[in-house]
Amino acid sequence: MAEGKYPINLWVNEDRYAKLQAAGLAHMCKEAMAGLKVIYVYANDAQRDKILQVIPQAKFDSATTKSIELIPRKQKDKIFDLVIQKKSIDVLDDFLKMF
Amino acid sequence: MAAIGHGGKPIVERIMEPAEAVKKIQGLPQVPIRSQIANEVIGISYGFFSPLEGFMNQADVDSVCKKMRLANGNVWSIPIVFDKSDDEIHEFGIKAGSPVVLTFHGNPMAIFEVEEIFSYDKEAMAQAIYGTTDVKHPGVARTYKYKDKFIGGKITLANRPKINEPFGPYFITPIEMRKKFEERGWKRIVAHQTRNVPHTGHEWLMKGAWSQTYAELPIDKPYVGVLVNAIIGEKRKGDYIDEAIILTQDELRKSGYFGDHNHLTSLTFWDMRYAGPKEAIFHSILRTNLGLTHHMFGRDHAGVGTYYGAYDAHNLLATVQDELAITPVYSMNWLYCPHCGEVTSEGLCNHKSEWQKFSGTLIRSIVDDGVKPPRLIFRPEVFDLVMECAEKYGFGSPFVTDEYLEKRTPVFSIEPLKA
Known about the structure:
The complex is a heterodimer of chains A (99) and B (419).
Chain A: E1 6-11, H1 14-22, E2 30-32, E3 36-43, H2 45-54, E4 59-60, E5 68-69, H3 73-86, H4 92-96
Antiparallel strand pairs in A: 1-3, 2-3, 4-5
Chain B: H1 18-24, E1 30-32, H2 35-45, E2 54-55, H3 58-67, E3 83-84, H4 86-91, E4 99-104, E5 107-118, H5 122-130, H6 138-145, E6 149-157, E7 162-163, H7 174-184, E8 188-194, H8 200-214, E9 224-232, H9 242-254, E10 263-269, H10 277-289, E11 294-297, H11 312-319, E12 327-330, E13 334-337, E14 342-345, H12 360-368, H13 380-392, H14 402-407, E15 412-413
Parallel strand pairs in B: 1-4, 8-9, 8-11, 9-10, 11-12
Antiparallel strand pairs in B: 2-6, 3-6, 4-5, 5-6, 7-15, 13-14
Helix pairs in contact in B: 5-6, 9-13, 10-11
């Protein structure tokens, strides 16, 4: 079976956009939902399962969007900071090392 | 003309006048009840659960579990049971043949004519209703939490609930609901079942269902209405607060996305069982009793996790359609298509590779990240009201927190009984 690819949506507010611009990473934003900026960080099956295990509030929206949602803001900020630090969206292994 | 409910039976309110109630409850044993049971007492007394006249006896429970019917043959899908432990039955002096008074928050609420005390295999009940015995299923977990004895018998409301603000205008009983429909001149009314703050996907589900329901009716006057019937019951941390749900649903009308001529918001007290197909049948019965003619059902209606297939509810409804006095309206999902630049139905748009699906959960994540969702997917009036509700009712959050659960004003209260 093909490996899954499940997005975590980092919605880009003004603060986040300023940080991205300062780091020269504004191009990483995609446009979604009629004008919002978002960075998609993708989890594989194992990462998704681990996230749901270590962040009990998180939810995998299996019915509609197939995305990982309801990760608390503080945790998403940590993922976002890793994106800035590594200049990459491939950060979930590093993020999960924090648990 | 009598209001006719499920099974072709007239809706009969089982409510006693206060003066009579004060006399009747004197000397009766008092039995405290929890919120689920209080919700169901209201459901039974006002006719939301017609033709039920009380909590189910063993014959009804067994028949519902094995045949999806009451013992009298009427379709019914979820047992409505009153549970107590042996110790509680002894402590409160509950005996078959003797009435007791049910109390909620310390005040008398209803008279319960105890007819039968019985046991039932809870695992068999869970398997029959939920199709699983997995305790991770919230309905199964609820079933396993029932105490070991069930008590059947008729219920009569002795003390009408005081519906607290802001919910007052939205508690509309089956008898009152029919008057509202008549005043509006609606010939057909389609139910929108919800436990959510509406995003535009919900709004378009309603608009699509309104259009489907309108069908061949003349268009000289508004003949079709959408009734939003919000389920208000047990809350879990992280849910939207009740106040935000009911007020934002109505905001769609107030802000002109609908109007008085085609939209009405109401509530029903019920603790969701997440029974998927069986809950869909129950919703059909409930909305029949509210006087509706049509009912929206989307994919995986009232399901949870991966326990039910997308169309299981539709398939089960089809098996008893002739016995339900409500027409199902099946709804496809609505989504945002950047190519079209609009919210559209997956049954219409063919830019499949560009589709951006959204859900309440996704919109919540947008809000959590400090971003205001665009009006195409979340109406600004709804967003502003959600934030207002957070401050006014939610102790700073639009979502249920421990503080909300502890300090919120209950949706209804039972006041001391006065003649």
